Amino acid sequence: MIRFNKDILVPVDFKQPSVNAVNMAIKIAPFIKGRVHLLHIIHTGGFLDMLGSKSQMVSLTSSALEKLNHLNDQYFSASGIETVLKVEAGKPYRKVLEYAASIDPSVILIGDNDQFIHDEKILGSTNTHIITHSGWPVITVKCEKPKSPSRIVLPIDLSSKSQIQLCNAIAMARHYESTIYLVSVVIGGINIKESRIYKMLKHFQSTIIQNEIKCEIKLYKRSEIPVYQRIIEYSNEVNADLIMIMTHQEGTTHDNYIGAVAHHVINEAAMPVLSLTYRAAFYEPEEAMAFVDPLNIFSIGSESTKRKNILNRLFGN
């Protein structure tokens, strides 16, 4: 589950997208009360391996540290936020995840890398690997002046992952004093108020409000408009500071992909998107018990086999 009072990891390549991530770190660090780690990766392989030059690596490392110090002076000198500056060499996504494992951050902030193929924006390979393999929440930062997450949009469906998302959203909203905006789309042709998803949204809203968090809901009728467009549309409508999504379903046979809806949202939303793998989002029973849970939404069995499955208790299934 999202944890706090931990460090923030910001991989930087000194281009504007990673500077945007630095700006978001400045916004959220006072809430987390942790250090900000600025990590630059020297991408080895290719020309460096062919050169085989230690002096070249020393020069690149020295140059990167100088740039990190300049970035630190420019953005953090007057903030009172503690920073750690680090330069590593290797494959960028692997080094980011290895470094994350060494510090156990509350979040990894990555800049949106704005790559395009045939005029269509896509995630770069480094960001894709970080998001899909991370055991920590990852926020893809989109704008130069991101805000602290006071308005969080949470897309909901009928899968058990929605309960996990809700648990994480409540934890985050409590910490940042946020409002949660639940959004979903009716899949079948049933009347909205007779649908299972409407009942779920209302139950979730009730639980959120009883945890002293403001909450609004939006349920769209079935249409030809893709779900991800509805999520982005609603996020723009409520002027969201953050969209929280899970990258794939619980119980899949592999952990190495981003679901189609999540992929589109990460690519196309104008605001930061917090991505959670199942490993990053999973919560322990004792953590869930910290929430007011009148409908037993967060109930989990104590046995190891049951702990792997979030029980769908909403409708007695």
Kindly describe this structure.
The chain is α/β, with parallel strands linked by helices and 317 residues long. The chain folds into two domains: 8-141, Rossmann fold (3-Layer(aba) Sandwich), CATH 3.40.50; 151-307, 3-Layer(aba) Sandwich (Rossmann fold), CATH 3.40.50. 41% of the residues lie in helices and 20% in strands. The protein is built from twelve helices and twelve strands. The strands form two sheets. Strands 3-2-1-4-7-12-11-8-9-10 form a ten-stranded mixed β-sheet, with helices on both faces. It has a two-stranded antiparallel sheet with strand order 5-6. Helix 1 (16-32) links the parallel strand 1 (8-11) and strand 2 (36-43).
What's the CATH first level of the largest domain? Answer: Alpha Beta
Number of helices: 12
Helix content: 40-55%
Strand arrangement across the biggest beta sheet? 3-2-1-4-7-12-11-8-9-10
Number of folding domains? 2
The CATH topology of the largest domain turns out to be Rossmann fold
Mean pLDDT: 82
Task: Itemize the secondary structure elements and their pairings.
Layout: E1 8-11, H1 16-32, E2 36-43, H2 47-51, H3 54-76, E3 83-90, H4 92-103, E4 107-111, E5 115-117, E6 120-122, H5 125-133, E7 138-141, E8 151-155, H6 161-176, E9 179-185, H7 196-210, E10 215-220, H8 227-237, E11 242-246, H9 260-268, E12 273-276, H10 278-281, H11 285-288, H12 304-307
Parallel strand pairs: 1-2, 1-4, 2-3, 4-7, 8-9, 8-11, 9-10, 11-12
Antiparallel strand pairs: 5-6, 7-12
Helix pairs in contact: 4-5, 8-9
